[in-house]
Design goal:
CATH architecture: Roll
Largest sheet: 3 strands, antiparallel
Order of helices and strands: EEEEHHHEEE
Distance between the termini: 44 Å
Radius of gyration: 20 Å
Number of domains: 1
CATH class: Alpha Beta
CATH topology: Nuclear Transport Factor 2, Chain: A
Number of strands: 7
């Protein structure tokens, strides 16, 4: 399944509207930057590209991306807060807000967060639908404090 954009052009009021479409596949560079035998690097396509994008979004802290100060999930900053009953809710809100605001190709279906305050880590498991692909993807990642 591919993503299509439709444009309506009305050149004359007495004629019918003309519709056209173009195919825009989801693609991205593989961030491992492994080289193919041809010398090019591998690409991520369709659901794999969206999954990589969501992971990068969640692991990016606020103010890390130039000129976009609100970009990112900012999950590691929450690990420095005191762990209580509300911490899971704050993490869930941060994840869903980041995906809704910055990744239009994904729609969150399920979210599970397991906090481990003694080791200052949080395991995040996000299940989301990739828009226009009718495919469900599950992403699991661990956010850890470095100090």
């Amino acid at each position: 399944m591919v993503r299509r954009f439709f444009a309506a052009e009305d050149t004359n009021q007495q004629t019918a509207i003309l519709y056209g479409s173009r195919v825009i596949p989801y693609s991205d560079l593989d961030l491992l930057f492994q080289k193919k035998p041809s010398g090019d690097i591998y690409k991520k396509k369709e659901a794999a590209a969206v999954k990589q994008s969501v992971k990068n979004l969640l692991l990016t802290n606020r103010l890390e991306k130039p000129f976009l100060p609100t970009f990112g999930g900012d999950l590691s900053s929450i690990l420095f807060e005191l762990a209580d009953d509300e911490t899971d809710d704050i993490l869930e809100l941060a994840v869903t807000t980041a995906i809704e605001n910055w990744e239009p190709r994904a729609r969150v279906k399920n979210l599970r967060i397991n906090m481990s305050p003694d080791s200052n880590t949080a395991r995040v498991k996000v299940t989301f639908d990739v828009i226009n692909l009718e495919e469900e993807v599950t992403l699991e990642t661990t956010v850890t404090r470095l100090r």
